[in-house]
Amino acid sequence: MYRFVLGLATVLLVAALAPAAELVVNGGFETGDFTGWTLLGNTSNTAVDPNFAYQGTYGAKLGSIGSDGFLSEILPTVTGQTYTLSYAVENVGNPPDDFGVNWGGVLVPGSNLVNVGPFSGTVYSFTVVAPGPSTQLQFYFRQDPSFWGLDVVSVQGAAAVPEPASLGLAGLALLAAFGRRKFRR
Question: Fewer beta carbons within 10 Å, N or C terminal of the chain?
Answer without folding.
Answer: C
